[in-house]
């Protein structure tokens, strides 16, 4: 990473906008990559409130930043302040990356790209297959959209009944229309349908916060649906092994945590800003 002596008047800035933001692994990941490739840039985390978001996005132009990453609670609100959206971002309705293209701010969502790349890294080919995903929030929507765009045959989405259930149904309908992939939203309380969906699937994904600290002893789904030939992917990476992954591994299933998704969504953003490939193996060696 850059020393004080290496920072000059030519050094470009990349940011991470979130609240909270200090916990993020992204600054180390990107600064390792800039240093390894000799790119004159630095990546810093900024805790940005909802009220400050419009001003801070304008700062990307004013300070001629390469761009920023966005996390909660800004992925949807930021849509109003960019000039253009990538095709996937339009479908998803949320962005996690902004690229400054000569003053024009373009919003992207690389979460789904990171998810698919992480599967490939673990020799899981879900294209042409059926998957079940638990959750219908922002991260889940990105994963569903990318899987549908890439050619997954069928997607079942499991979510608890809530005030947002109708909104989720509408979003899923929009993704279906944009991708021609059959997607079915099922209540987690409808156990017969949940079991049917998982039994038909070649991959089970948790895209909820269930199992994250401090609720590490919780499961997002009945453990009886798990089986040895069903790979289980959990987007959580803290803890590295959630209870869901422990239970699945005990049944003999292949298990994957969210570190790969974090790394590969970052690699996709890195390429958008720099037009260079992130040195993924180098970053893994030093970060994980």
Q: What structural class results from the helix and strand content?
A: alpha/beta
Name the helix and strand elements from N-terminus to C-terminus, one letter apiece: EHEHEEHEEHEHEHEHEEHEHH
As a percent range, the share of helical residues equals: 25-40%
List low-confidence stretches: none
Largest sheet: 6 strands, mixed
CATH class of the largest domain: Alpha Beta
List the domain count as a whole number: 2
Shape: globular
Distance between the first and last residues' Cα: 16 Å
Please count the helical segments.
Answer: 10
E-strand count: 12
Arithmetic mean of pLDDT: 94
What is the radius of gyration computed over CA atoms, rounded to a whole number of angstroms? 19 Å
The name CATH uses for the topology of the largest domain is Rossmann fold
Q: Per DSSP, what share of the residues sits in E-state strands of 2 or more residues?
A: 15-25%
Q: Which CATH architecture of the largest domain?
A: 3-Layer(aba) Sandwich
Major sheet strand order: 2-1-3-5-6-4
CATH superfamily of the largest domain: Leucine Dehydrogenase, chain A, domain 1
InterPro entries: Aminoacid_DH-like_N_sf, NAD(P)-bd_dom_sf, SDH_C, Shikimate_DH, Shikimate_DH-bd_N, Shikimate_DH_fam, Shikm_DH/Glu-tRNA_Rdtase
Binding site for shikimate: 24-26, 71, 96, 111, 237, 265
Subunit structure: Homodimer.
Active site: 75
Descriptive overview:
- Keywords: Amino-acid biosynthesis, Aromatic amino acid biosynthesis, NADP, Oxidoreductase.
- It holds the Pfam family Shikimate_dh_N.
- It catalyses: shikimate + NADP(+) = 3-dehydroshikimate + NADPH + H(+); L-quinate + NAD(+) = 3-dehydroquinate + NADH + H(+); shikimate + NAD(+) = 3-dehydroshikimate + NADH + H(+).
- One of its GO terms (biological process) is shikimate metabolic process.
- Homodimer.
- This protein has about 290 residues and is an alpha/beta fold.
- The protein folds into two domains: about 5-110 and about 260-285, Leucine Dehydrogenase, chain A, domain 1 (Rossmann fold, 3-Layer(aba) Sandwich), CATH 3.40.50; about 125-255, Rossmann fold.
- It has ten helices and twelve strands.
- It has helices spanning about 25-35, 55-60, 85-90, 110-120, 140-150, 165-180, 190-200, 245-250, 260-275, 280-285, and strands at about 10-20, 40-45, 65-70, 85, 95-100, 105-110, 130-135, 155-160, 185, 205, 230-235, 255.
- The strands form two sheets. It has a six-stranded mixed beta sheet, with helices on both faces. It has a six-stranded parallel beta sheet with strand order 9-8-7-10-11-12, sandwiched between helices.
- Strand 11 (about 230-235), helix 8 and strand 12 (about 255) form a beta-alpha-beta unit.
- Helix 1 (about 25-35) packs across helix 10, helix 4 (about 110-120) crosses helix 5 (about 140-150) and helix 5 (about 140-150) packs parallel to helix 6 (about 165-180).
């Amino acid at each position: 990473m850059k020393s004080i002596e290496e920072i000059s008047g030519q050094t470009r800035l990349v940011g991470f906008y979130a609240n909270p933001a200090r916990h993020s692994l992204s600054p180390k990941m990107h600064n390792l990559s800039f240093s390894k490739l000799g790119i004159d840039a630095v990546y810093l985390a900024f805790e940005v409130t909802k009220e400050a978001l419009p001003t801070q996005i304008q700062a990307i132009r004013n300070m001629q930043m390469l761009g920023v990453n966005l996390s909660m609670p800004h992925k949807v609100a930021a849509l109003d302040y960019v000039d253009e959206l990538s095709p996937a971002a339009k479908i998803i309705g949320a962005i996690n990356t902004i690229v400054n293209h000569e003053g024009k701010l373009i919003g992207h969502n690389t979460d789904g790209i990171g998810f698919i790349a992480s599967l490939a890294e673990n020799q899981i080919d879900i294209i042409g297959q059926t998957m079940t995903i638990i959750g219908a929030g922002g991260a889940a929507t990105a994963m569903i959209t990318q899987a549908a765009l890439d050619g997954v045959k069928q997607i079942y989405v499991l979510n608890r009944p809530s005030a947002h259930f109708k909104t989720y149904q509408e979003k899923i309908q929009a993704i279906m229309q944009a991708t021609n992939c059959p997607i079915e939203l099922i209540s987690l309380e409808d156990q017969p349908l949940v079991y049917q969906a998982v039994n038909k699937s070649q991959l089970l994904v948790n895209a909820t916060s269930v199992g994250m600290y401090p609720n590490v002893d919780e499961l997002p789904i009945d453990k009886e649906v798990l089986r040895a030939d069903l790979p289980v992917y959990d987007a959580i990476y803290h803890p590295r092994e959630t209870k869901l992954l422990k239970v699945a591994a005990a049944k003999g299933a292949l298990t994957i945590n969210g570190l790969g998704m974090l790394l590969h969504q970052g690699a996709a953003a890195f390429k958008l800003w720099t037009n260079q490939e992130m040195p993924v193996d180098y970053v893994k060696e030093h970060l994980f």
